[in-house]
Design goal:
Blueprint: H1 15-26, H2 45-59, E1 63-66, H3 75-84, E2 88-92, H4 96-107, E3 113-116, H5 119-127, E4 133-135, E5 156-161, H6 168-177, E6 182-185, H7 199-204, E7 206-211, H8 231-237, E8 242-245, E9 261-263, H9 266-278, H10 280-297, H11 300-314, H12 331-338, H13 343-358, H14 362-378, H15 389-393
Parallel strand pairs: 1-2, 2-3, 3-4, 5-6, 5-7, 7-8, 8-9
Helix pairs in contact: 2-12, 4-5, 6-9, 8-10, 13-14
């Protein structure tokens, strides 16, 4: 996984690193982190994959737990680790409401277990014959659990923590235009990126903590474009009052109106904020019930125990493998990846017109995005292999 969000220190700590690593450690496991997001550590994806294989061979883990972004870890690498070691390979799928179609359905064929937080993705997996997809969910970190403060002791009326993309800024603008005080934290906001250790305190010190459910690539869009975010569990776990955009499946985890509050439009958002700010006793009761349910059912200890139970069931059916992993076995994939005689020309053809349109910084990123979107649609699984053109042409931009 990546140490920092999108591999960039200025974007702050990566959620998965901050929450998953301590969760496994609290359960008594030794954890070695391989940072697959920092492009400055390796010259290309070939070097990154070789380093991962060498690390696995040296550490000899029982489990390789991945949070795959897209094509940074090749399918050949995952297959090699599964074929030449007794380690189980798990991928925790993020954003599967849209990512399953373009990426996760390909990842799942090269791991022992793909964990998804999206019910529709789990159903699609079954229809594709994928029997190793487990429906789970985001959760709260045990280290951040704290009982709610009464409304009278909170510092912020309304807070939002997150990047200002899509429709989020517009809807927050509705709140401010209505005279409500909203404090925003995160990339692109007035307070900027805050440390992971400060986030639970902000939730607890807010009378209302907002969560938007729209997928980053799809905007508000409607129910089908919404997904349950980690923030849904993070807020009540930290002792905050959750006001979240409604999304399918939310009532499997909290009772709307009793353990969390919901909104479904900017007008409804304004009305709900006003209502709960004017009803502090009701706000306090909902925050407490949401916190209690989170502690009882929605922590990463409970989620990861479910994962380990799945792996325990596999032990009866999977043959025992000896440790014989060697980076030399990846040599063929490395050669395929680095065979670049014509790729310089192809990159120039893609980057030049888009740089003229979007500028020197955004142009190469737009070219990468264009190639990637074409690749997964046209050649599917090859996108995530050593032969994938997006990874071969756009290492730094990926």
């Amino acid at each position: 996984m990546s140490r920092y969000a999108y591999g960039r220190r200025e974007r702050g700590d990566n959620y998965d690193y901050v929450h998953f690593v301590p969760a496994w450690q609290r359960m008594g496991h030794e954890v070695e982190v391989f940072d697959s997001g920092d492009r400055s550590r390796f010259p290309d994806f070939a070097a990154l994959n070789l380093a991962l294989v060498e690390t696995v061979a040296a550490v000899r883990p029982d489990v390789l737990f991945c949070v795959l972004m897209h094509y940074e870890i090749w399918s050949e690498t995952l297959d090699l680790i599964r074929d030449q070691t007794p380690a189980y390979v798990i991928n925790w799928g993020t954003d599967d409401s849209w990512k399953f179609e373009q990426a996760s359905r390909f990842f799942a064929r090269h791991v022992d277990l793909h964990v998804t937080t999206d019910r529709t993705a789990a159903d699609k997996a079954a229809s594709l014959g994928l029997r190793n997809v487990l429906l789970s969910q985001w959760a709260a970190s045990e280290a951040d659990l704290a009982e709610p403060l009464p409304s009278s002791r909170c510092r912020y009326d309304v807070s939002f923590i997150g990047s200002q993309y899509g429709y989020r800024g517009e809807w927050i603008g509705f709140l401010r235009a209505a005279g409500l005080s909203v404090s925003c934290f995160g990339h692109g906001s007035e307070h900027g990126v805050v440390s992971a250790s400060d986030i639970p305190t902000i939730h607890r010190m807010s009378r209302i903590s907002l969560n938007f459910s729209g997928a980053g690539q799809l905007g508000a869009g409607g129910a089908g474009a919404r997904q349950i975010k980690a923030r849904v569990f993070e807020v009540p776990g930290a002792g905050g009052f959750l006001l979240t955009e409604t999304t399918p499946g939310l009532d499997d985890y909290y009772v709307p109106g009793e353990q969390a509050a919901v909104f479904d439009s900017p007008e409804d958002l304004v009305a709900k904020c006003r209502y709960y700010l004017e009803q502090p006793a009701l706000r306090d009761a909902i925050a407490l019930r949401g916190h209690q349910r989170t502690v009882a059912q929605h922590t990463y200890n409970s989620r990861f125990r479910q994962v380990l139970q799945y792996l325990s069931a596999l032990e009866d059916t999977r043959p025992t493998q000896p440790w014989r992993l060697s980076a030399d076995a990846l040599a063929g994939a490395v050669r395929r990846h680095r065979r670049t005689s014509w790729l310089v020309w192809l990159r120039w053809c893609l980057v030049t017109p888009l740089t003229l349109m979007f500028g020197r910084q955004r142009g190469p990123r737009a070219a990468r995005r264009f190639l990637f979107e074409c690749s997964w649609r046209l050649v599917g699984a090859r996108t995530y292999s050593a032969r994938g053109l997006a990874g071969r042409l756009f290492y730094a931009e990926s």
